[in-house]
Amino acid sequence: MNGFSTGEEDSRGPTEQICCLIDNGERCSKAAGNASYSKRIQKTVTQRRLNLGIDNSARHIYICDFHKMIIQCARTKRRRKDSEDDSNETDTDIPEVDLFQLQVNTLRRYKKHYKVPTKPGLNKAQLADTLMKHFKSVPVKEKEVVTFFIYTVKTNSNKLDQKNGVNTDTT
GO CC terms on record (predicted)? Predict the structure, then answer.
């Protein structure tokens, strides 16, 4: 629980354990995943007033995928509300993109392509969180993008064809 591993709990793996959380007064009976109930997650649970707590009799801090998604959704809702307050836009104006659903290799390719500086050794959730901040900061000129998209569809071409020197323009 303190970050120090004796190796004993690692040999069993979190798949044989049940979730360490107490949800609305009852211990969760779902299988634990590889996500742990860290101080950061505890802070989110407290801030969002989720009825979750750690069972002190549990010998691990692994949580199930169900509770992991509940906590992630609570984080996302908070972010959306903050951005709504800042920009006076509603949730329907800005579609939420969940980079956590992408594979780690895809996230790494995104990071490399846009040269996003990150700390070494980030896990998938931390990488997705960092890249989401970058993704939201990329400026988009909607009018130009939509105009170019319509032009591309009408001419049956795309940027990749133009880069490779192949012109598929039939006009």
Answer: nucleus
